[in-house]
Amino acid sequence: MRQTLSFIPTLRETPADAEVKSHQLLLRAGFIRQNTSGIYSFLPLGKRVLHKVEKIIREEMEAINSVEVFMPALQQAELWQETGRWYSYGDELMRLKDRNDREFALGATHEEIITSLLRDEIKSYKKLPLTLYQIQSKFRDEKRPRFGLLRGREFLMKDAYSFHATPESLDKTYDDMMQAYSNIFSRLGLNFRAVIADSGAIGGKDNHEFMVLSDIGEDTIAYSDSSPYAANIEMAAVQMDYPKSDEQARQVEKVSTPDQKTIAQVAEFLETKPENCIKTLVFKADDELIVVLSRGDHEVNDVKVKHISGAKLIDMATPEDVRELLSCDIGSIGPVNLPAGVRVFADNAVKSIVNGVTGANEDGVHFKNVTPDEDFTVEAYGDLRFIKEGDPSPDGNGTIQFAKGIEVGHIFKLGTTYSEPMKATFLNDQGKAMPYIMGCYGIGVSRIVAAVAEQFQDDSGFTWPNAVAPYGIHVVPVNVKDDVQREAGEEIYVQLKAHGFEVLLDDRKERAGVKFTDADLIGLPIRITVGKRAAEGILEVKIRQTNETVEWHKDEVLEKVR
Ligand code: ATP
Ligand code: MG
Ligand code: MG
Ligand code: MG
Fold first, then answer.
1. Total Cβ atoms within 10 A of residue 291
2. Which atom of ligand 1 is nearest to the CA of 151?
3. Distance (Å, whole) CA 488 – CA 428
4. SS3 at position 416
5. Which atom of ligand 1 is nearest to the CA of 108?
6. Which is the most buried residue in 215, 372, 486, 544, by most CB within 10 A?
7. Is the dihedral of CA 180, 183, 188, 191 positive or negative?
8. Which residue minimizes the CA distance to atom 14 of ligand 1?
9. Is the peptide bond before 129 cis (omega within 30 degrees of 0)?
10. How far is ligand 3, taken at its centre, from the CA of residue 407, in Å?
């Protein structure tokens, strides 16, 4: 590609609102532009990187017989209502109406769509297993879109879904995916780690996140200093199974602060109310009284809260109970007014209820007319630190250390979480209707572009690895007004292209300094500078990752770049 015919708007200054290196450089080197908060356009160079990442993902998906499809982003609300996620997903789900007032969501993920697709098509165990994937834009109204492509509101995801007749078959595909993911991230040159994860609001059993180790990661990984153990911090806290003994448990209860008194009162109060519908957890951390609300049927979170250090799980509180114990108004009565120092944590299911989303799917659990963030704060579990560095590793080997990670992939065994409520069944070998056993497997394709960008750069710009570089070779005639230089540059460009190389030719009439600065910014792996010595056939070559420079004769270019 000739630079004069492409669109590579480089910037000299670092954009003020870009906080992290990858975002700054993707803007400066002309790879992306922001449209509005969390929404980006990919310019030609950015699009090429994206394409390379997609290509690697496609190859590894096809290698394990995962087959590509393309599903709609615009999804009718009815499907989301079948699984209840219409109510539980909360504000992150982008909702809209058509001209007839029919409700839709913009796909945040595609479990409902694919389950509904297959339930009408696959009736026999003989057609299973089946794994389908797509690469498509996803929409999530993130509370804090930030760091450019790392957390967008519209972003590209590879999402795969597998369907099985037996748990063993799911295990096999899960293992294949695990391997495929490792291949993908290795080929991308990323410094990553697979960690045991908690499935949060989605439900299900085995569950791993793939984390790129990076200081700007928003996730915390807890790993053992002397074993392969690695989990996300939430899961590590669960696996700690703390407090381990009655003695430790009693010590936690013995803390005598005014807040503790409140906790005891709360516990006593709620224990007398067995048959209601919200589970409440009250505990003290960092001198704050923390209340966790979790919907009664939310198994995964129940497991999680039961194991929190120093926590007391109180089953089945009603909104009235919560209101009374917090001496605040919840429900249709009026604004919530929590006592100072109280933070409320809730899973997504409860969040939508607390946030007053109308039509929450259980009677008696609506918290209406309240303004979150004004009347009180609702946060996700993840912020709670229940495990510290230096704690014993849950696997019994060594002690826990923390590292920051960027979640680039996530694989889950869903089981029948979706197929059961959606009545998606097949006939097994006994002729009996059974819900499909499912798995789902996501990769943040656009997030990966940022993760790679974050890892591969130096003070003057990108240092793309070959696997994802927008072009492999940059041919830079220093002065295109000089016939010898221009023609030599053209010749090399045409020759390399004819041999299948991806080449960018800087045919602009710019000063040498501008060209070199831009070439460093863009960061293609090999730069061939055609300067004054072109007349003798001598070219100056820079290997961008090492900044090493060598001289090549123009006749040896082909053999050297191979
Ligand atoms: P996060 O914890 O970062 O919010 P998630 O757990 O909500 O991510 P998943 O539902 O597991 O995300 O989606 C699969 C993958 O999609 C993630 O592993 C991540 O790589 C990517 N992803 C999720 N949200 C975003 C986003 N807002 N912008 C870019 N990529 C994202
Ligand atoms: Mg998220
Ligand atoms: Mg996550
Ligand atoms: Mg995830």
1. 22
2. 28
3. 68
4. coil
5. 10
6. 544
7. positive
8. 442
9. yes
10. 6
Q: Is the Cβ atom of 407 under 6 angstroms away from ligand 1? A: yes
Question: How far, in Å, CA of 14 to CA of 25, rounded?
Answer: 8
Name the amino acid, one letter, at 365.
V
Ligand 1 contact via 148 beta carbon (within 6 Å): no
Non-local (6+) Cβ contacts of 325 within 8 A are: 265, 266, 269, 270, 317
Q: Is 350 exposed, middle or buried (0-12, 13-18, 19+ CB in 10 A)?
A: buried
The rounded Å distance from CA 179 to ligand 2 centre is: 24
Q: Which residue's alpha carbon is nearest to atom 12 within ligand 1?
A: 410
The response to whether residue 410 sits with its C-beta less than 6 Å from ligand 1 reads yes
CA 15: distance to chain centroid? Answer: 25
Q: Whose CA is nearest to atom 28 of ligand 1?
A: 151
What is the C-alpha to C-alpha distance for residues 384 and 114, in angstroms, rounded to an integer?
34
Mean pLDDT by 10 residues, the chain (562 residues): 97 92 97 97 98 98 98 97 86 95 98 95 95 98 93 98 97 98 97 80 70 92 92 72 41 33 42 36 42 38 31 40 42 32 42 38 35 41 49 88 95 93 95 96 98 96 97 97 96 97 98 97 98 95 96 95 89
- Please tell me the total number of residues recorded for the chain in this structure: 562
Model-level ipTM above the cut of 0.90: yes
Q: Are 526 and 472 in contact (CB under 8 A)?
A: yes
DSSP secondary structure code for residue 278 in this structure:
E
pTM over 0.90: no
Mutate to test the pocket of ligand 1, among 92, 157, 185, 300 (most ligand atoms within 8 A of CB): 157
Output the residue whose Cα is nearest ligand 1's atom 26.
Answer: 151
What is the H or E stretch that residue 311 is in? Answer: none
Question: From the CA of 437, how far away is ligand 3's center (Å)?
Answer: 23
